[in-house]
Predict the 3D structure of the following.
Amino acid sequence: MPDEAAMDLDGDSMEEQLKAIQISSFEEDEEEDQDEEVEEDADSNSDDVGDDDSEAEPVTLGFVEKPKNGWSLLRHMFPCKAGGVPAWLDPINLPSGKSSLCDFCQTPLQFLLQLGFKCLDEKNFRKKLWFPHRHFTLKAYRECANICHPFGSQLERVYAPISEKESTFHRTLFVFMCPSMKCILQYKHEQWKCPPEKASRSVKVFRCQLARSNPFYSSVPPKGDGTDNSSGIGAQLCNWCGTWNGDKVCSSCRKARYCSEKHQAMHWLSGHKLVCQQMKTYSESSNSSTVNNRRTSNELEKVASNTLWPEYEIINEDECEFDMEMSGANGYSGSMVSNDRSDETFKALSKHFEADDDKKSWTSFQECISKAPEQVLRYCRSPRAKPVWPISSGQPSQVDTPKCRYCGGPSVFEFQILPQLLYYFGVKDDVDSLDWSTIAVYTCEASCEASLSYKEEFAWIQV
């Protein structure tokens, strides 16, 4: 028989062991297993370029609407707009030379869109706002504006994420592109070259920023009722495109101005030949009437090009608010883009995605966009933000994204442009028509200052 003392010793030892054991329920064990799986998944996906971290960041959606008046898209209103001609923030020191040209066909680039930013970071109210907002009522806005800005309401504004810098009180991003699909396809292949700073481009982005005190705008915000007047100063623009600096003059009338010989030739063939002869006749005739001179001058002031994309105002809506809307409805009843058309577009593009990763990316992209089929832009400027990529295999790595050419600092994703914009521009669905899957825009993280008024940023395109 075992010794009683030994039994007592073993009993005491076993009791101590039992006390040390932590008893947990089956649910707790299951939660621990799930946590371990989540950690493993996070580790395995930490190096993936196309992860879903960007979805955790608040995203602002951009939509287009026809402007309700003629003054809301003028430059002194700091507009967000697509199509038409740009409302240059700095109206004098415009991009020039090769910066305004497609690097492939050497044709002046066409204006796509611009996002205007306004800093509203007063001491008593540090929330950043992007206006106009689809569901932000005028009454609620005025209550907010009375708190955040001593000058009263500013209905046409966009929030500025870089609120701590005085030099970015006004900040606007401009996007231009070549309308030739051939050049876009060339750019698609060119952007993979290293170093990316030397790659030729058919899509260009410019950043312009001004301090609150500047030579062009008052520190007092505009009233926003149509009575505001601009300073009137500005560079003389091309009479054909109304976009770039018109540093070339018609040798005959000496009044029409052009940014390039190509635009001068297009203007001449489209009717300036007749107007030019009339102006020359009026100036040589001693009996020329002031009315006739004024009439021909007014004709020159109009942008002659008929190939510009139609002009829209860009308004916004927070994606989270739209998700709340969708939770109580089956769809967006006011959508201008029909579900049938959206389905046809998605089906047509999905044929190009053969790899499994591409199919997964496209499915995720489609699900994200289908919540608001009218969106033409997704904005999220955050160190963790990433675009929603339609194609997995076409994503840029950190090596493909160039550093800021002015300060050498990192570039971060700021917004992406969706192909739905082409629908509003009336681009036909032909074989050679302009098309893209997404255009992701990267800007200097520090929004640095430089001697140039317009700093060139980086755009990555998926086709």
